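Dear colleagues,

As part of the handover before I leave the project, I'm documenting each prediction I ran so the next person doesn't have to rerun anything. This entry is a single chain, and its sequence is reproduced below.
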Amino acid sequence: MSDVMAEVVRLLTEVVGDDLLLEGEVGPETTFGDGLALESIEFVALVDRLRERYGGVDFPSFVAALDVDRIVNLTVGDIVDHIEAELREDVHA
């Protein structure tokens, strides 16, 4: 598991709670909707925590560029990939 993936899972655990989320059950293909049954307010709380942790990563633009079907099927891996891509860009900038 990458460092970013581990951090996203840790932040998800903070948002959802230990009793609802076991780290071993979350992987890159886990969806926020069907897989985690995250409510929209929980997703917003997760994005806030991610923004605090990865301040330079532009989450609003990332989500705004997605159509509704894509947002509904967004996976943990999609978020991790976006963070890692932006972190790589920052290193090369």
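The two ends are 26 Å apart (CA to CA). The chain has one domain: 3-92.

All the best with the project,
I.
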